[in-house]
Amino acid sequence: MSEIPPKDPAPAEDADSEPRPGRVRKPIGWSTIIIAILVAVSAVLVWRRDGADGVLDILTHDLSLFGGILPRVLAGCLLGAFISEILPHEKVSRSLGPKSGLMGLLIGTAFGAILPGGPFTAYPVASALLAVGADFGATIAMVVSWTLIGYGRAVAWEIPIMGTDFTLWRIVISLPLPVLAGALGRFVYVRLYPKPLAKEDEN
Length: 203
Fold this sequence. Notes:
Layout: H1 30-86, H2 89-96, H3 101-114, H4 119-131, H5 136-148, H6 151-162, H7 164-174, H8 176-192, H9 199-202
Helix pairs in contact: 1-4, 3-5, 3-8, 4-5, 5-8, 6-7
Subcellular location: Cell membrane
Protein name: Permease
Membrane topology: Multi-pass membrane protein
């Protein structure tokens, strides 16, 4: 009988790729339990003060609010899923990955500044970028830039209420902050999740 040819060994992971922490998200964690306890305590306090009618009034209002928010959450999650499938992993990793350096932080900052929409858009997009090769630093720069510099809120709310001079100076002063936050996030991430040594380096 002829010998069965040995199987080719599985290709080793690229040592240069950024390791991802193998953390599985649980549907119920400590944060969910704490929030549930706070909700139960608050409901009891409202029931003792206003009776069952007060509790039902709050529940009715919250269900109406939840019904209005749910389509936005669904749309944001779908947007993040589609973006993670559409974006080319190699280009994202090269432009926003751990080796992108200062340019990656600047790209993340610029992208966050022009990203439209609210949190239902920004956070799914940030999650999608992480999934396709962006590192923590560039993604942090994007989120901080969207929070501080985002043009949508500046045009719709800040300029009409606070004036053009205030808005422009606030944006100019905020410009370095996303880059600094991204650099700090990249520095901390590398030390929390150090890259495994390649086999040739161990020998």
